[in-house]
Amino acid sequence: MTTGTEHLDVPALAAQPAAYWAWSTTQALLRHVRSALARADITQPQWWTLNHVGASERGLTREEVCARLDAFPYHLGPEDMGHAVDNLLHRGWLTADDSGRLTLTDAGREAEEQARSLVARLRSEIHEGVTDEEYAAALTVLQRMIRNVGGGVTPR
Question: DSSP per residue over 32-86, as a string?
């Protein structure tokens, strides 16, 4: 079995800036995912909200949604997550009880399942030709680089 590394110019690649490639990867992946979600008429923050609220046994408050998703490093703040909650309430995909706990409606569960299926397809596209071992190694290296410069690494 070939690994695709047989003809690599390791010294030349090792001299390239990791930040450039990490940034370029982030931009390409976000563009791909956000475009696919947009074609399905959902934003990434809306998907995250549906996913987290749907996974919570008792639902989540707006504040809990914002706190959970504020940790995502995509330059989104609590107001962006609040907009996602407002939009999902308006669409009838979320409902809030008297205490403000958000839960998915039937339409919200259907939308969440459709988005989950789309995200699974996107993950397959992104991971095509990349073994789980290669993927894990790449993440391990990136996490080590983050720690090397004093950054925190929070597993997801």
Answer: HHHHHHHHTT--HHHHHHHHHHHH-TT-B-HHHHHHHHTTSTTT--HHHHHHHHH
pLDDT tens digit at each of 156 positions of the chain: 455 556 889 899 889 999 999 999 989 999 999 999 999 999 999 999 999 999 999 999 999 988 877 656 566 666 778 899 999 999 999 999 999 999 999 999 999 999 999 999 999 999 999 999 999 999 999 999 999 999 887 766
**Alpha-carbon gap, residue 141 to 21, rounded angstroms:** 13
Residue with tokens 């907009």: 83
Which residues lie below 8 Å from residue 71, measured CB to CB, with a gap of 6+?
154
- Region of 71 (left: φ > 0; alpha: ψ -120 to 50; beta: rest) is alpha
Tell me phi and psi for residue 98, to 5 degrees: -60, -25
Give the span between the Cα atoms of 82 and 45, in whole angstroms.
9
Closest by CA position to 55, among listed 96, 116, 114: 116
